[in-house]
Write a structure and sequence with these properties.
Blueprint lengths: L2 H15 L6 H7 L7 H16 L2 E11 L28 H14 L3 E6 L7 H17 L3 E5 L5 H9 L4 E3 L18 H13 L3 E3 L2 E3 L5 H14 L3 E6 L16 H14 L4 E4 L12 H4 L4 E3 L11 H10 L3 E2 H4 L14
Parallel strand pairs: 1-2, 1-9, 1-10, 2-3, 3-4, 4-5, 6-7, 7-8, 8-9
Helix pairs in contact: 1-3, 3-9, 4-5, 8-9
The structure holds iron/sulfur cluster.
The site of iron/sulfur cluster has 9 residues, from loops.
Length: 345
């Protein structure tokens, strides 16, 4: 073990606690550190999380309102119409079913609930009308924060969603720009960036991250973090590829627990003020799931994912409370919250 490495981690940690940043070059060094240094790295990431995000964990949940036969060819996705998978295909679920799921999520302590629809944007009147119906029903049925993930947004569609009362928009970059042609060829990386900028310009809080473990290099993991930093994204969901049979990425080897924890910690260093939210692929951590928070995560998605089952919500909530962390939605009225990072110091 090299003492100089411990000391460099400490220096970077202190610089960020003092309001500075980690460079992309340092990020590329950090994400390559040997396993032996992971506990030290996590200790620093934990300090950054506590300093910038406090003791509260943001919990969110999603509903897949329309699934399968998607026009896009995202290589990781079970819902793409370009791949042959066992994912279910159905049109919009009834609003009552959506509200029941949102109410359940709120009872669990979730502060935000995402309406997720396959496809590439709110393109037809039918889609707009359905979302209006959903948001009106959610408004009447629960105070949970309203989030949506619908693919690309134009300026006009972002503004329309804002007038419907939507607060957050989720749209992943998915990966680094230099890797995107391995992931999708039916839309462009620039469309992802435009969507994020359009959502922000309309006054929506942006939730954007990606999927790690798709075959990208370690440098490309840092490249995506750097892009998210430049875009000023407040909430960064990290997913770890769950290879789905029938997709072009079906034979990828899942990331190891250490690799996942090192990636989370490095993202906390790259994006110290962001809500770093762990979503799909958490199961690859096995018995080490609770370590995501010590590695710097400040949020977690609970319940089921789009096409896969999550682990038991009771286990997730117990995990958070056993760590003496608080579920933000337990104590705060959710609707209308302004996202503010806890001041460092
Ligand atoms: S990730 Fe979204 S846009 Fe891409 S194939 Fe899946 S549902 Fe379609």
């Amino acid at each position: 073990m090299d003492n100089a490495i411990f000391s460099t981690i400490d220096q970077i940690t202190q610089r960020i606690l003092n309001g500075g940043e980690m460079t992309a070059e340092e990020g590329r060094w950090m994400i390559r550190l040997d396993d032996d240094y992971l506990p030290w790295l996590m200790a620093g990431a934990d300090r950054l999380r506590k300093s910038y995000r406090g003791n509260e964990i943001e919990v969110c949940a999603i509903a897949n309102v329309r699934s399968g036969n998607c026009s896009e060819n995202c290589s990781f996705c079970a819902q793409s119409g370009h791949h042959k998978t066992a994912a279910p295909a159905y049109d919009y679920i009834p609003a009552e079913e959506l509200v029941a799921q949102a109410q359940q999520a709120r009872e669990w302590g979730a502060s935000d609930f995402g309406v997720v629809s396959k496809g590439w944007g709110m393109r037809s009147e039918k889609e707009g009308a359905k979302l209006e119906e959903y948001f009106t029903a959610m408004d009447a049925g629960t105070d949970i924060g309203r989030c949506a993930s619908l693919g690309a947004l134009t300026k006009a569609s972002a503004e329309k969603l804002k007038t419907m009362g939507m607060e957050n928009y989720h749209h992943n970059l998915e990966c680094a720009e230099s890797f995107f042609d391995q992931v999708c060829t039916t839309h462009t990386y620039q469309e992802n960036i435009d969507t994020i900028n359009n959502a922000r310009a309309a006054g929506l809080r942006v939730c954007a991250g990606g999927i790690l473990g798709m075959g990208e290099s370690l440098d490309q993991r840092i490249e995506m973090a750097e892009s998210l930093r430049q875009l000023g994204v407040e909430s960064v969901p990290l997913n770890f590829l769950n290879p789905v049979l029938g997709t072009p990425m079906g034979n990828q080897t899942p990331m190891s627990p250490y690799e996942i924890l090192r990636a989370i910690a490095t993202y906390r260093y790259m994006l110290p003020k962001a809500e770093i939210r762990i979503a799909g692929g958490r199961q690859f951590l096995g018995d080490m799931q609770s370590m995501i928070f010590m590695a710097g995560a400040s949020g977690v998605m609970i319940g089921n994912y789009l096409t896969t089952q999550g682990r038991s919500v009771d286990d997730d909530l117990k995990m958070i409370r056993d760590l003496k962390l608080e579920v933000r939605g337990d104590t705060k009225q959710r609707r209308g919250r302004q996202d503010q990072a806890v001041a460092a110091g």
